[in-house]
Amino acid sequence: MQADLGPLALLGLFALASCQPANTGKQPATTGATGGTSPTTTDGGGTVTGDTGTDAGTAGDGGTDTGTQVLPGQTVYINEFMADNARILQDESGEFVDWVELFNAGDEDVDLAGWTITDDLSQPDKHVLGDLLLPAGGLLVLYADGDTDYGVLHLGFSLHADGEELGIYDPDGRPIDLLSYDSQLQDVSAARAWDGSATWSMGWPATPGTSNGAGDPEPDDDAAIENVPASVWDDSALFSDDVLPHFDLELSAESIAALEASPYDYVQGTLIYDGTRYEPIGVRTKGQNSWESITEKPSLKIKLDKYVDGPGQLLGHTDLTLQNMDNDYSMMHERVAYRLYRALGIPAARATHATLSINGEPYGLYTHLETVNQQMVARWFDDSDGTLFEQWDVDYYDSYIPSFQLEYGPDDRTDLQGLADAMEQSDPGTAVLAGSEFLSWDSFRAYWAAGAVVGQFDAYPYSSPGDDCHVYDDPTSGVLHYIPHGMDETFYYSTYNVESTANGILAATCRQDADCRDAWVASIDDALDVADRTALYDYAVFVRDQIADLVPADTHKPYDDATVAYYQDDMLSFMADRRAELSRQVGTAP
User: Fold this and answer.
1) How many CA within 13 A on the CB side of residue 278?
2) Pair 192, 179: CB distance under 8 Å
3) DSSP state of 569
4) Domain range annotation of the chain
5) How confident is the model at residue 22 (pLDDT cuts 50, 70, 90)?
6) 298 vs 1, more confident
7) pLDDT band at 290 (very low <50, low <70, confident <90, very high)
8) Given this structure, which CATH class describes domain 381-586?
């Protein structure tokens, strides 16, 4: 878990540094008896000496094996670095600056006085290190900010996030560790997979001053320059099935009053996730019939790039969506339903549970839902620069086309209008054929079939004019694709007829054409088979058990615990009987 790291604790004879809030300006660092400032170090066991607010841990997953370098007998490594530090590690003055972590894999302390470190391998002596000791088995964090006036821990250069070089040399000018790194993301460190490893992990959370994990160091004889790969966002922690995220919001009295007066307008706040503060961020309530006020249990939209001086993103996400599950009495629907859509290859959001506190008060259990935006679209389509519309109380008739809500991209409604024109054909088969120029029928039928399996009767094509879905106009295929959302009211009404009640014009036209209807029924068979192969029922049981202790702890939910238990059982019964029910209704395989 990410800790809120200030200056890290110091080893042995060095004074302990404490976490300080950002001040109004840097002060020159004080010197000790030896003339140097107190460095950030750890002991040889990888445990930080002193209170750092974090445990020793791994640097991340999924590194790239790059090979090793340097002279025989290497003990000093560039172990981790961050080239764009916005909110992870503060220096002694409370400022966030780039940093480099060194590791001593040897059994003896290393006096670094006279060693050099550089961000330009053609200039090895760019910065000469002062009176610093790197203990045996220990770590040392140096601040790459160009402010050498502020102490021996501060380097005469800063790091470039778009990629450059790093190297450290002994007093005789011999290369000890040489790197060339590609572009790095904000607040993501490049770290050896374990201390002294030849494998690099582009990981979050960063672990400055804390061991990346134990393992055998991997020196080499060939003095090669290691290539450190570009970093990419790893947002798996936000949507893990194993560990549910917790979010803290801090809202001023003024912001709360503003949300009570205008609940759909963003106000300024602070988000705290995994010990790191993200501020200022935009916060507003959301929802229609599920809407609740900020003092009850609101659904929330959190926008990290709302303000110019804000954080911009959290693990690559500019937006977070927290659903209050007001209409989901099982408190499980969204997480399970979206899983089926994704398993079918239908572009759909990731969903998990999360807990939320506002100003220190627990607000209970939420669905944490991936926001349908360009970032999400880019995970599913080769080209995310098309146009995304939200279908909200509209259908493919001339009068509705201007009312499709533009989410992003060029406001080009040519394919929407073309599909509406195609649906005007009197013969259903002709209409389907004409519509194929503008719509991926395979995508639509798969989306519609998944809705039949999970009982998504609150969305198009069951609602007409329809809502609870998006339509993406994909530049690569040149046709429209369906993206679902709004799964809170799924798994109700098991006997609701999945064919005769689908009155949106696309479904109504398709089911009147024998070939199109047969393809849709085949899509239902496929969805049922995928639900079985992926053990969707067992997953629902897992989710129920995982949140069992969180349900009674949620005192903000608008229903009681007995209601939740009843609807969880009802949901599981719906799932267990679904194949038999759909076989009875539309003739799917028993």
Assistant:
1) 28
2) no
3) H
4) 1-234, 237-369, 381-586
5) very low
6) 298
7) confident
8) mainly alpha
